[in-house]
């Protein structure tokens, strides 16, 4: 009875305040790993422990990744008082022990739930149990919650996500709330004060330029999801990010496509959440996921998404303002044919369409560094000439010459 009484006080207090967020969380896009893209519901504590082990041994942790996120199907039953428990067959040591294991490696543990009565995988959802679930997550030592949108008939999304946001805040434990309602209700317009990131699209799958039709919904390739980000960059920044879904690097696309995928997610300041099997990564996949120069573009403290400056014959030019007056520039070849780059920096003044940033090549000279070859190129006084393979990128960092 005391337990229930304290819970009622907790809920009552939470209902009197607006949604609040913990300060200094997700000031740069979250970096980590999620179980769904590779394992779906076939998860257990050994899978999660192994992911944590390999995040450390592969160099991903050292490169900046920190979250090990359990997706759907970890759930057991609710007890007589409504508190959720883990599936004891899949997680025999318990979620608290798993969190301790992950934390001991210097990483953080994420978990999954849903705003509806059931999760997308048919497990118990959080509707009506938001405060109880938040309390349990805090008790376990959870650091990140992906909150999905299945079985949500007749639910108001702003109300549902505000409720879980308040519930997490009232626990006192800093937990990153990842809003996953697929962009259906334009969360970029209302979620800044509720969550730390919000999905902008439906699910990704491991194809560079495709749509997978499931009847009443589709999964999307990398380019399709990239195109869906148009017009959204003005809503994102430190502590509140557009989320174009987890990455498919290492899940079957070509090396050039993986490289382009990773680069463009960095350019648009997306969360870098890997979705591959970390225990079987090739060296090429490791090299892509741990490219610190590309990661630095993503994690730049200015927190501004890149923008598409030009597109011609399936060759796109993207710019991203960075701290200290630097700029990232990426040439993306969307097509199936090799393309020539012939970019004359001199004489161009490029203005950010949404923010007060300008790069003026008529007045300033920039040094140029190739972020995949890890070498310095000629400066912006020279015309940039290069060839770019199909479904690949040339990514550069520009720094003003002193």
Which terms would index this structure?
single chain; 402 residues; alpha/beta; TIM Barrel; Immunoglobulin-like; eight-stranded parallel β-sheet; six-stranded antiparallel β-sheet; 11 helices; globular; disordered N terminus
Structure notes:
This protein has 402 residues and is of the alpha/beta class. The protein has two domains: 297 residues, Alpha-Beta Barrel (TIM Barrel), CATH 3.20.20; 94 residues, Immunoglobulin-like. The protein is built from eleven helices and 22 strands. The protein has an eight-stranded parallel beta sheet with strand order 11-8-7-6-5-2-1-12. Strand 6, helix 7 and strand 7 form a beta-alpha-beta unit. The longest helix has 15 residues. It is globular. The chain starts with a helix and ends with a strand.
How many helices? The count is 11
Task: Enumerate the spans where pLDDT stays under 50 for 5 or more consecutive residues.
Answer: 1-17
Helicity, in percent? Answer: 25-40%
Proportion of residues in β-strands: 15-25%
């Amino acid at each position: 009875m005391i337990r229930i009484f304290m819970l009622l006080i907790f809920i009552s207090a939470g209902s009197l305040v607006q949604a609040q967020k913990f300060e200094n969380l997700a000031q740069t896009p979250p970096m980590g790993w999620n179980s769904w893209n590779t394992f779906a519901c076939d998860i257990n504590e050994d899978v999660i422990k192994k992911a944590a082990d390999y995040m450390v041994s592969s160099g991903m942790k050292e490169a900046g990744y920190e979250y090990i996120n359990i997706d759907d199907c970890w759930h057991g039953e609710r007890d007589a008082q409504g508190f959720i428990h883990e599936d004891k067959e899949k997680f025999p040591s318990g979620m608290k022990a798993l969190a301790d294991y992950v934390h001991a490696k210097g990483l953080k543990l994420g978990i999954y739930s849903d705003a509806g009565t059931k999760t997308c995988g048919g497990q118990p959802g959080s509707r009506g149990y938001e405060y109880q679930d938040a309390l349990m997550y805090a008790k376990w030592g959870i650091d990140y919650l992906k909150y999905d949108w299945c079985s949500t008939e007749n639910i108001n999304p702003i109300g549902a996500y505000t409720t879980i946001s308040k519930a997490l805040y009232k626990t006192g434990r800093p937990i990153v709330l990842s809003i996953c309602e697929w962009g259906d209700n334009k969360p970029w317009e209302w979620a800044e004060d509720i969550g730390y990131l919000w999905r902008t699209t439906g699910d990704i799958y491991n194809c560079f330029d495709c749509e997978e039709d499931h009847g009443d919904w589709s999964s999307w390739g990398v380019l399709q999801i990239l195109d869906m980000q148009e017009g959204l960059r003005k809503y994102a920044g430190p502590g509140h990010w557009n989320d174009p879904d987890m990455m498919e690097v290492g899940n079957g696309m070509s090396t050039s496509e993986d490289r382009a995928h990773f680069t463009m997610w960095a350019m648009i300041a997306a969360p870098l959440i890997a979705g591959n099997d970390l225990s079987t990564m090739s060296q090429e996949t490791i090299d892509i996921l741990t490219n610190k120069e590309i990661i630095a573009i993503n994690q730049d403290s200015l927190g501004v998404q890149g923008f598409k400056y030009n597109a011609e014959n399936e060759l796109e030019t993207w710019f991203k303002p960075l701290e200290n007056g630097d700029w990232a520039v990426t040439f993306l070849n969307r097509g199936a044919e090799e393309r020539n780059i012939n970019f004359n920096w001199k004489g161009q003044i490029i203005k950010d369409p949404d923010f007060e940033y300008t790069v003026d090549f008529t007045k300033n000279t920039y040094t140029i560094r190739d972020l995949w070859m890890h070498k310095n190129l000629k400066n912006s006084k020279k015309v940039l000439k290069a060839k770019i393979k199909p479904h690949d990128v040339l990514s550069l960092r520009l720094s003003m010459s002193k």
